[in-house]
Protein 1
Amino acid sequence: MIKFSLSLISFTLVFFGLKNFFSEPKIQRVSPPELTITNFAGPDVTPSPACLAVAPTGEVYVGVDMMGSLGKDPGKGHILKLIDKDNDGKMDEHIDFAEVDNPRGIIVQGSQVYVLHTTFSKETKQATGMDLVVFEDKDGDGKADGPEKPLIEHISNAKYIRERGTDHATNGIRMGIDGWIYISVGDFGFHDAVDRSGKKLTMLGGGIMRVRPDGTEMEVYTHGTRNVYDVAIDPYMNVFTRENTNDGGGWNVRFSHHIQSGEYGYPVLFQNFTDEIIPALADLGGGSGTGALFMDEPNWPEQYNHVPMMADWGRSMLYIHRVTADGPTFTQKDEEFIKLPQITDLDVDGSGRLYLSAWDGAGYSGSPNKGYVVRAVPNNWKYKAFPDVKKASIKKLTELLKSNSAVGRLTASQELVLRNNKQAIATALKVASDQGLALDVRIAGIYTYAQLTKENGIATLVEFTKDKALREFALKALADRKVNIDKIPVEPFLQGLKDSSVRVQAASIIGLNRLGRPEVANVLLQTKVPASFIAPAKGTEGPHATPNSAIILPHLAVRALVDLQAVDALLAAVKTGNSTLALWALRYIHTEKAVNGLIENYKHSTDEKLKQQILVTLGRLYKKEIAYDATWWWGTRPDSHGPYFKAVSWEGSPIIEKFLKEEATKAGAQGKQFYVDLNARQRMDIPEFAEEEKVAAAEEPKIDLDKIKNKKGQVGKSSIEDVLLAINKLQGDPLKGKNIFNNQGCIACHSLSKSEKMKGPFMGQIGSIMNREQIAESILKPNASISQGFASVMITAKGDRTYMGFITEETAAKVVVRNIAGEVFTIKAGDILSRKEMETSMMPEGLANSLSYEELASLVTFLSEQKK
């Protein structure tokens, strides 16, 4: 199943295992009364649908994935083309478009179909990575004419796809009106991905990357998310995601606004270094974000239009997020929209037909009997044929580009770009210049014009920066492509920094970053840093999911200064009123020049506060993140202390260590605590500053699990089917359920509060994502499917030692294992000889055998009420 560990496989699956969520053949859904939903295709045609895309003309392309997120064998996936000939909401014909393994994202543009999928070796039958490819159907028979054409190769970690499956791999793809394909990257990241120009790129962790439709100009757009599965892109090129982190005691959903070049912090900054990141807009509790779409179609009801729509597989719900402008970013309010069991993806066509796919309990390795596609339309919807743009006149394309349909505008834009003639250029320019048109239409015009004219359009785009309404987008279009970046003047961006609109200022900073001119560093250094730029206090977690519009501009300025490697300007600014921003940027520049310059600034300063900030900066520079080579991954529950995951020393480390020791000696016993705290926070591991770690002894409950499971009560004497029928009729007493939770051994491996020590799957939110029947099934059949992140692991270590349990903590230096009895073991990474994930759950079957129906009902009810 899609990368549903993704956000939540690990979380939604309680008790180390979970059976398929929905076993009934009947389609379960709940939708607003203003919509009509029809069953478009069932599991006989579209089992295990991982992704879908719809052509503007209404043909539905579905990625069937019989591998799921845990499967590792090839030959189980394909792309289907589904056709509704009479437009009644039911598929009339289906065609096998192409055979691909693990389809994860699809885009349809005319005769071309872009697909992101896992690749396999024909010889070894093992995964070799993931590729973004394009198929073409030139003869219109509904089938790809030939083999796929790779656009980007190796955009995920092949080692962990082979070992784990695609649960944290690369996923959904979507095209913006700017003509870029945006790619959602899970936190497997990638190493040496290569595009058609031969450019190579590596990304440690997750985020969003993008590429041109011809497979060139590949680049990272944002960084620092965990399991983003898809993006919603609005007409103004705002990018939204519903991704998650493993923060605290659960896998919580984050709704984020992605701003180009932004750092979102997972996993090393989002808890203890939140002053340095762009925070998410909201923490929405447990869940698992999947497909995404920005709905912008004229025949949709106003209350459901112009909004990001986000699927959540874990909650079996399509959400609407009401976004409100907040400076350069937004605030949001989410609301439930359409309930669909394990919803995976959604897309809309040019006639306003919304299609949604549901996994429907297909399991983590796919199922031939589960999964379907539905169509949703407004009650008053009437079919209106979308034109064949290949045959359309320039007049018709102009009408489409000027329409209030996002599908229409994008389709017209791409067709004009393909035609690439004087008429196309004139059309785009006329639309962009017409001040009587809606802003989103003019934006479509300006991006189309920029794609058509490239360097020949620079002068006109510069003129557009003088148009107040278009200024932000003209600046973005100017710096959007780096192929002609040396020909773009810097002046419009410098003027943009003075604009009254913070969105224009943000676009200007991003543009100056992309222009790559170090001489603008002093201007960027004048960006004001707000009072909210405060590191979290020792032992507290920072606000990583609270909107902070004031931090956006300085954050973007820092990213630009780092990319420009403006060391001289930064060191000079340390002595000025811009020292805070300068020192913030210097945290990320690991050069001896930066280190020596900071030390010189320290020696010549009489400002004690500034000197302390310099020491903090040097502490941060003492180590750096190891170069990523894809041989490792941080797992589903990584060490999130930060500031690095795998820290290593470098050439500047001895210089910093010598200086800090000298200053610590001068500070004496009274000032030593500062260096002790600095050493701990920055994880420098300097022995002279180390403080002995005091671990409070925790009293663990003594539970005899064998004695519990060998008792035979009503549950142990009955079939699972009879038990589930009985549970459906009994409400149970949640107070009794709490006692049973303790007495039956659940407490040994599960916590209920985020204030407790993290053990196995967190139960404090389980009621928000699973119903009573699902909870009961997971208790009765723990081996049905193992919760990702909580599989039993067998570790052999030096000294002829063996440990079996689940990982509760993992860093580059150690692994912490908790066994079924609640015992905790810390194993040095260097002592580990082998590590194997077990195929069975650590939770033994039969722990509920001694219970009566009423007692099990009470336990289930108690858990179903855990919705923190």
Note: The two ends are 27 Å apart (CA to CA).
Protein 2
Amino acid sequence: MKKLVMIGNGMAGVSFVEQLLKLNPHRYDITIIGSEPHPNYNRIMLSSVLAGEATMEDIVLNSWEWYRENNIQLHAGQTVTAVDTEARTVTTNLGLQLEYDELVFATGSLPFMLPLPGADKEGVIAFRDIKDCETMLSASKQYKKAVVIGGGLLGLEAARGLVNLNMEVHVVHIHHYLMERQLDETAAKLLQAELERQGMKFLLTKNSDTIIGGERVEGLTFKDGTSVEADLIVMAVGIKANSLLAKDAGVTVNRGIVVDDYMQTNIPNVYAVGECAEHRGIVYGLVAPLYEQGAVLAKKLAGIEADGYQGSVLSTKLKISGVNVFSAGDFSDGPDTRALRVQDDLDGIYKKVVFKDGKISGAVLFGDTSEGSKLFSYIRKGESFAGREKEVLFGPSGGGKASGPEDLVKAMSGDEIVCGCNGVTKDTIVEAITEKGCVSVGEIKACTKASGSCGGCKPLVEAILLETVGADNVSAVKEGICGCTTHSRDEVVEAVRSMRLTTSREVMAVLEWKNPEGCSKCRPALNYYLGMIWPAEHEDELESRFVNERNHANIQKDGTYSVVPRIYGGVTTPEDLKRIAEVAEKYEVPLVKITGGQRIDLLGVKKEDLPKMWKDLDMPSGYAYGKTLRTVKTCVGKTFCRFGTQDSIQMGIDMEKKFERLNTPHKVKLAVSGCPRNCAESTIKDLGVIAIDGGWEIYVGGNGGTKVRAAELLVKVKTEEEVLEWTGAYLQYYREDATYLERTSEWAARVGLDAIKKALEKKEERDALNSRIDHTLSLTQDPWKQIIENDELRSAFDALTAPVHAEAAAATVTKADQSI
């Protein structure tokens, strides 16, 4: 069997290997060498890790098991230092020497670091891999001022994550508008306005000059004499092909490793693919072209005759801080082009399609990118719209959309990429449906990874599924709560109620789960639904909870935990403050921080110290780790403020004491403002209360996180009792109706405010909902106190079970979370 060695373990290279295995799985003995100590992961999703929306496990594309199952030898954490193309060997930094018959460079790219004076100071980094994410996360705990140099996609993604980490972020860009390679000026200005609303600050047309400070960065000066303070500087100004190793081996290198149409270099049996490769003078940095290159190389090495790689028409479909943008082709205006533009400032939508000689040469979409795939298909095919240009956006009649996903699917060729994040073609999806029996988007995602990253291609995947199974079989397209079952959330909940199922195992057995043990997605969901429906009968299944909920504390990157005691309404006493300070000193807590929810966070606590700390604190758990009520933020209201109209402090304390320990589909944050000035930020909370003259306004469905959503007015009431009544009814309705892990903002947007109002408008309905929530609350206990008083529960926190090193901590989290 021939020996195939690939240098690099990134997305482009492993995609090539996946396709090679499909075409000719037994032709090569495959070895992969990767510098990072991780399996192949989705680099596009690094910003989600930084923003706290995903973990490392969530973005892994090919697990350790995948390599073993496919007999691939992976040497992770090793770097190739030399290639001998005459002896056909590669050597690593750890002394490993491997022979090869075929060699593939998939070394990717390196971040370009501006050669500024002071660039070697501590706190100046790039944003390229997991290690960079960890550095930024660590810095955010100690420092507060960040500067991102580069207003392109990577820079904005880094800025988004840093804003989410509560840092003050300035984005520096040399151009006069953002993302000039992907957007035109109009779309860029719309994007900038939205990002400014989310908290980013921008310094445009700025040319960086010097990084100032001592050992650590303290600021950045510009050529115009101005400056900005910074504790952290992230350079996101571009990438360059990682081609030095190939050059040292005698391979022809220009901007990248020069390859022909079959990805072959000037040396026999040596190939290059991905960001390190230069084809016809172009080095591509987007994933779709790299996957297309991999498909050509896979056919070449599998011994299959095929057309060579002809280059790619570039397109970008992205979601930046919750905003959808799309661009493709050449969308610049010129003397020989004409453009069709649509701008809707009310809904934040902008569309521009550029025509040249009757054909679409490029397009930009902002806010609504549903037509992106269709436009990209038109660009690739070179279809002429001479004399009927408006049909592209308005349809043949000029009054509506030209077509939907279903029409696009019919026009798509089999080799067209549907999922740009993971390089999945239409043929691959159809094969998963017809040959592997996938009958839902969830199953297709599990089988092919299509729609598994940003989710932007989900409508297209659904359309392909519908076209393939036929309209008569539309019922078969139903998506279950996970890949273990075809049953939807509503069907599971109904079965639990009607058949009085009280354990997860009963649900899985009765509803015939494909995987009798369940998975990390369905087991926590089932545990929640059972507890919500049968709070007295169902015994909480700790093994089905996430690691933070099992340990009643948030695990940190170094394996330690954070402890956040309950501080009702943000109001504390000197006695409690003394106790917290004494506990922090006793257990040598490295960091004590005031949280955004008006509480005190003790960070860096060893697992074995948790029960002892809880006992010494003698305060209730603040549930900073759970899918439950987190905080009720308050302002001082009329107690001290000259503008206050109601007692917001007492209202907040009453709400927090009533609803603490309430399990919910996702975390819930409340706030009470003492006047319409809204100092407690009530209009971006899951539920916010604002005092007005003679009463209160209750707002619902808000979110101040990465997907900002303003809360909507639910009702105006006169008394504090009515506030508690409506709050209880709303929270219970959310508990009973929402899908597990669905935030109130997502749920409210999905069901609509009118439906929520209708469900709560009758007093008897609100009373019934409050009766059920009161029954649930009467059964809850403080978990810290439970563990302190129970030897068996406390034994789980013994020193022998606590991770000592960061590596052990990571392994513990991975194993625990995989077990649910």
Note: The CA atoms of residues 15 and 111 lie 22 Å apart.
